[in-house]
What does this fold into?
Amino acid sequence: MTLRQSVPNIRVAGLERAARMAGEAFGHEDLGPLPRFASQAPQTSHVVWLLAALAAVAGFAALILR
It folds into this structure.
């Protein structure tokens, strides 16, 4: 008995191509810090990572103490 695909191969190939093109487009939109903020960029990044880590620890603590 043959298995029938719900989506033809042609459509899947088109979707894969569209996803690849979208990924490439979004990948090239990553811009570095603006020149006037270049000295503050590393500090800002560290603060964001610190806040994210604190939020993760608080979330894990809430799950454990539940």
